[in-house]
């Protein structure tokens, strides 16, 4: 009985996650190409998808690494890009804190934007039912497998793609795709404008510190504008 | 060297996902922090977008103009269709077109 329902949850998670792979797989392939374009070896590129496992943070990593940023800036920037996962795990914690530690470690590793989007909905729908953690395992594992395979494909395709194609533009294009929808909200627009301004003005600063300064400026102005617009729906729209 | 940074970045990523699952005391964020964290991706990514597109501004003005044009078109696509795939494909295709025409 328990096995049956846990298998059901797992396959529900897999099926809910599959459509999203239409966006995830090309993104993973683009990352494979970008890794090589940035001067990483095929092995480094493929294993980064396993060790770091996060699209945006891997792209940030590769971008900063190829720009010669110091290690602390690379690591710090990756951590900053991933700070949103704190909120994901905070939202899911009530459903998962009673599971064994090994489960929580595996599920934390598999927690991505897409897995959170799909499985947190299921958590809310069925409550703290015994086997609901299998749903997150199913959706998280589906994305993980697709991401690894897509990176491999990208690495193999990458060696056949000429440099004159300027695929390095795929990095900013990917970020445009990720942030553009949120810019309809005034606090996000304010955050983007100020951080862009600081990024441009700060290019001459040492140690690539323009990024952290731009990020902090954008975050502060976003949070400052946010409450004053009186729009409580802003953060609710984000997932 | 890159392996150590990768391990560190991977560990940082994992901890950001695991911390709230850990059950440790004090892993609940102060509530005033949460509204700020919502702007982290927007602030970081827009800074990187603008910095990488404007990097050729002084060295190669026409390359900069082509990247800017492709980025603006991609932005319009992203707003209209909300598709990462369509945004990247259209942006890269427009950039290729500009590179080959001019």
Question: What secondary-structure arrangement, pairings included, does this model have?
Answer:
The complex is a heterodimer of chains A (239) and B (102).
Chain A: H1 2-17, H2 21-37, H3 42-51, H4 55-66, H5 71-81, H6 84-96, H7 101-109, H8 113-126, H9 133-158, H10 170-179, H11 186-201, H12 210-229, H13 234-237
Chain B: H1 2-18, H2 34-37, H3 40-53, H4 61-81, H5 84-101
Helix pairs in contact in B: 4-5
Q: Please estimate the helix content of chain B.
A: over 70%
Strand content of chain A: under 5%
Q: Kindly provide the radius of gyration of chain B, computed on alpha-carbon positions and rounded to a whole number of angstroms.
A: 19 Å
SSE string of chain B:
HHHHH
Strand content of chain B: under 5%
The largest pleated sheet of chain B is described as:
none
Summarize the structure.
Chain A has helices spanning 2-17, 21-37, 42-51, 55-66, 71-81, 84-96, 101-109, 113-126, 133-158, 170-179, 186-201, 210-229, 234-237.
What keywords describe this structure?
heterodimer; A: 239 residues; mainly alpha; 2 domains; 13 helices; globular; B: 102 residues; 5 helices; elongated
Your description of this structure?
By secondary structure, chain A is mostly helical. Chain A folds into two domains: 2-167, no CATH class; 185-239. Helix content of chain A is 74%, strand content 0%. Chain A contains 13 helices and no strands. Chain A has helices at residues 2-17, 21-37, 42-51, 55-66, 71-81, 84-96, 101-109, 113-126, 133-158, 170-179, 186-201, 210-229, 234-237. In chain A, helix 4 (55-66) packs antiparallel against helix 5 and helix 11 (186-201) runs antiparallel to helix 12 (210-229). The longest helix of chain A is centred in the middle third of the chain and has 26 residues, at 133-158. In chain A, 50% of the residues are buried. Residues 228-239 of chain A have low confidence and may be disordered. With 102 residues, chain B is mainly alpha-helical. Chain B has a domain at 38-102. Chain B is built from five helices and no strands. Chain B has helices at 2-18, 34-37, 40-53, 61-81, 84-101. In chain B, helix 4 (61-81) packs antiparallel against helix 5 (84-101). The longest helix of chain B is centred in the C-terminal third of the chain and has 21 residues, at 61-81. Chain B is elongated, with a radius of gyration of 19 Å. The model of chain B has no long low-confidence stretch (mean pLDDT 85). Classes of the chains: A mainly alpha (239), B mainly alpha (102). Chains A and B meet through helix 2, helix 3, helix 4, helix 5 and helix 6 of A and helix 1, helix 2, helix 3, helix 4 and helix 5 of B.
């Amino acid at each position: 009985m328990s096995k049956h329902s846990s298998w059901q949850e797992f396959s529900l998670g897999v099926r809910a996650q599959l459509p999203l792979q239409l966006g995830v797989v090309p993104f993973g392939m683009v990352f494979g190409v970008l890794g090589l374009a940035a001067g990483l070896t095929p092995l480094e590129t493929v294993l980064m998808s396993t060790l770091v496992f996060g699209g945006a943070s891997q792209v940030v990593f590769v971008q900063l690494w190829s720009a010669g940023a110091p290690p602390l800036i690379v690591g710090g920037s990756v951590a900053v890009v991933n700070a949103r996962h704190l909120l994901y795990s905070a939202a899911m914690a009530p459903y998962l804190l009673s599971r064994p530690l090994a489960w929580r470690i595996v599920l934390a590793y598999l927690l991505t934007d897409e897995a959170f989007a799909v499985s947190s909905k299921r958590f809310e729908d069925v409550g703290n039912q015994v086997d609901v953690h299998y749903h997150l395992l199913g959706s998280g594992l589906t994305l993980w497998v697709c991401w690894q395979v897509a990176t491999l494909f990208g690495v193999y395709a990458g060696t056949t793609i000429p440099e004159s194609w300027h695929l390095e533009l795929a990095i900013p294009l990917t970020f445009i795709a990720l942030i553009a929808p949120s810019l309809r909200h005034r606090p996000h627009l304010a955050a983007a404008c100020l951080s862009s301004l600081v990024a441009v003005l700060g290019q001459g600063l040492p140690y690539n510190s323009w990024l952290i300064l731009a990020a902090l400026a954008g975050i502060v102005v976003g949070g400052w504008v946010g409450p004053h617009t009186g729009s409580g729906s802003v953060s609710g729209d984000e997932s | 060297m890159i392996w150590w940074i990768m391990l560190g970045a991977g560990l940082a990523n994992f901890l950001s996902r695991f911390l709230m699952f850990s059950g440790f005391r004090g892993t609940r964020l102060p509530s005033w922090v949460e509204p700020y964290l919502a702007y982290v991706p927007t602030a970081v990514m827009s800074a990187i977008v603008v910095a990488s597109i404007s990097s050729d501004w002084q060295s190669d003005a026409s390359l900069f103009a082509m990247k800017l044009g492709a980025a603006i078109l991609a932005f319009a696509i992203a707003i209209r269709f909300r598709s990462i795939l369509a945004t990247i494909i259209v942006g890269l295709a427009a950039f290729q077109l500009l590179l080959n025409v001019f």
